[in-house]
Design brief:
Length: 474
C-alpha cells in the first residue's frame, strides 16, 4: 500500500514550495480516516477540530519562520500515552471516563516541535497481546486483508500508518508491540534502547521493559521522532543521561559491518518458509555488498518466552494493582464494601487476558513460588542479556525475522500460549534492553508483508538506523 507521503522531508519540501499546507495535510488524513476507520477500528477517538486548529497554528509559524522540527508531521497516539485533557484508557473498560491530568514527556516533546496529533489509537488492553484482539473496543483489522490481525499490541498505530491515516504513530514496545505490528503491516517500527525515551506518561505494563517507539513509513522519520523524544528526564529516574545524537543527520552507513544471524532461529520449526527465504535473501545481499555475515549460536532461545512472560506478568500484576475502582476510571456500581469494590471493579473492568496475566504474575511472586519462578527468571534474564551484549560486541548487528509468520487470521490463535510463542523473535531485545527495528522485507505468496528485524548494542541507534535505511529500497 503506497502512502501519499513516504516521509516528513517530502512533506516539508511541499510546505516550503507552498504546494500544500498543514491544514490540507490534516484534511487529507481525516478523509482517509473517515473512509476506513469504521471498518478497520483504528482510532478510538479522532481529534479532528483540534488537529485542524493545531495545523493552522503551525501554518502560521511556518509563515513566520518559527516552526519546529516536526512541522507537517501528523501523528496518532497509542491509547497508552498521557496527553493532558484527553481520554486515556489503554483500551480497557477499567479506565472508562478517565482523562489524562498531564502530558507525558515524549508526547510533550513532540508537541513542542510542532507535531500535530490527530487521534487516539486502539491497542491490546494494557498493551498485552500480539494481535489487537484483546482490546475492550474490539479488534483492529489489517488494512491489506481485513480478515487478518494487524499484530499487537500497537495494532491501531500500525494500521493507521499502513492505511495512510496519519504519517506516523507513537506506540509502546514491551516485548515486540511496536516491531511485530510494524512487520504485519509493512511499515517501520523502532524499539529504542531501554531508558532512551522517558516513560513518564506511558501507562506502565512491565516497567523494566517498556519503551515508547515510533511506527513510520521511513527510517528517516523514525530517526527524527526518536531524536525529538529521547533524552534525560527528571520525571523518569530510569531515563538515560546519555546525550542524544542527531539521528536524522547520521543516516549514512559504514561501508562494511559485521553482521550475525541466529542460526538456530532460522531452523525453528514453525518458521514460515517465505519468512526464512526473505531473511536468507537479505543475508546474501549483505554479503554481496561486502558486509561480513556469520552464523551465531544463541543457546538460550528456548528460555526466551518463559523468562519474558514470568517477568512481565510479575511486573504487570504489581503495576495494575492501582486500578481498584478508587482512584481512576470505572467503579463497579454493585459493590457493598471495600473488598467487594476491589473485586467487582477488577473482575468487571479488566478483560480476560489482563486477568490471566495478573493471576500469573501474582502466582510467580507468591511466597512459595517466588524463588522457583521470579528469581530464576531474573537470573536467566541476566544470562540472556550478557550473551546478547557479548554478541553485540562481536557483531555490529544481529539480524533475525521479526515474526515467525506473516499476519494470521482474526480468531485463529485461541490458545494464549500459541499467541505468546509468536513473540519468540522480539522478546530478546526487550529482555536485553537493546534497540531493535523492524523494516519491511517483501511479502509472502499472499501479498502479506514480511518484517526483518535488526538488533544493535545499547545506545547504538544511530548505526542501527543508518544500516536499516541502507536495506530499504529507494
Ligand atoms: N506480545 C507481547 C505481549 O503480549 C508484547 C506486548 C508488548 O510489547 N506490549 O506481552
Amino acid at each position: 500500500m503506497k502512502p501519499k507521503y513516504a516521509s516528513l522531508s517530502e512533506i516539508q519540501r511541499e510546505l516550503t514550495a507552498g504546494t500544500t499546507s498543514c491544514r490540507q495535510l490534516v484534511e487529507f488524513y481525516l478523509t482517509n480516516i473517515e473512509a476506513r476507520n469504521a471498518e478497520l477500528n483504528v482510532f478510538l477517538e479522532v481529534w479532528a477540530d483540534e488537529a485542524r486548529a493545531q495545523a493552522e497554528a503551525v501554518d502560521a509559524k511556518l509563515a513566520a519562520g518559527t516552526a519546529g522540527r516536526l512541522a507537517g508531521m501528523v501523528i496518532g497516539l497509542k491509547d497508552v500515552l498521557a496527553y493532558q485533557g484527553h481520554a486515556l484508557q489503554s483500551s480497557s473498560r477499567i479506565l472508562d471516563g478517565f482523562k489524562s491530568l498531564f502530558t507525558g514527556t515524549a508526547v510533550g516533546r513532540l508537541l513542542a516541535e510542532d507535531a500535530i496529533f490527530i487521534g487516539r489509537q486502539n491497542c491490546d488492553e494494557f498493551a498485552m497481546g500480539g494481535s489487537n484482539e484483546n482490546s475492550a473496543f474490539g479488534p483492529v483489522r489489517n488494512a491489506l486483508d481485513p480478515a487478518r490481525v494487524p499484530g499487537g499490541s500497537s495494532g491501531g498505530s500500525a494500521v493507521a500508518v499502513q492505511a495512510d491515516m496519519c504519517l506516523a504513530s507513537i506506540g509502546s514496545d514491551t516485548g515486540g508491540s511496536v516491531r511485530q505490528p510494524a512487520a504485519f503491516c509493512g511499515v517501520v517500527g523502532l524499539k529504542p534502547t531501554y531508558s532512551r525515551v522517558s516513560r513518564y506518561g506511558l501507562v506502565a505494563f512491565a516497567s523494566s521493559f517498556d519503551q515508547i517507539g515510533p511506527l513510520t513509513h521511513s527510517v528517516e522519520d523514525a530517526a527524527s521522532l526518536l531524536e525529538v523524544m529521547a533524552g534525560a528526564d527528571e520525571f523518569d529516574s530510569t531515563s538515560s543521561q546519555e546525550p542524544v545524537p542527531a539521528y536524522s543527520q547520521l543516516l549514512t552507513p559504514a561501508a562494511s559491518y559485521r553482521v550475525g544471524y541466529l542460526a538456530n532461529a532460522i531452523e525453528l520449526p514453525g518458521l514460515q518458509p517465505e519468512v526464512r527465504n526473505a531473511l536468507e535473501r537479505t543475508l546474501a545481499e549483505l554479503r554481496a555488498r561486502g558486509h561480513v555475515v556469520e552464523a551465531v549460536e544463541f543457546p538460550l532461545l528456548e528460555q526466551m518466552i518463559p523468562t519474558y512472560y514470568i517477568l512481565t506478568t510479575a511486573e504487570a500484576s504489581s503495576n495494575l494493582s492501582r486500578f481498584d475502582g478508587v482512584k481512576y476510571g470505572y467503579r463497579a456500581p454493585d459493590a457493598t464494601d471495600l473488598e467487594s469494590l476491589y473485586k467487582k471493579t477488577r473482575a468487571q473492568g479488566f478483560g480476560p487476558e489482563v486477568q490471566r496475566r495478573i493471576m500469573l504474575g501474582t502466582f510467580v511472586l507468591s511466597a512459595s513460588y517466588y524463588d522457583a519462578y521470579y528469581t530464576k527468571a531474573q537470573q536467566v534474564r541476566r544470562l540472556i542479556k550478557e550473551k546478547t551484549d557479548e554478541l553485540l560486541r562481536q557483531y555490529d548487528f544481529l539480524v533475525l525475522p521479526t515474526t515467525p509468520t506473516t499476519a494470521f487470521k482474526i480468531g485463529e490463535k485461541q490458545d494464549p500460549v500459541s499467541m505468546y510463542l509468536a513473540d519468540i523473535f522480539t522478546v530478546q531485545a526487550s529482555l536485553a534492553g537493546v534497540p531493535a527495528i523492524s523494516i519491511p522485507a517483501g511479502a509472502d505468496a499472499q501479498g502479506l508483508p514480511i518484517g526483518l528485524q535488526i538488533m544493535a548494542g545499547a545506545f547504538r541507534e544511530a548505526d542501527l538506523l543508518a544500516f536499516a535505511q541502507s536495506l530499504l529500497p529507494g
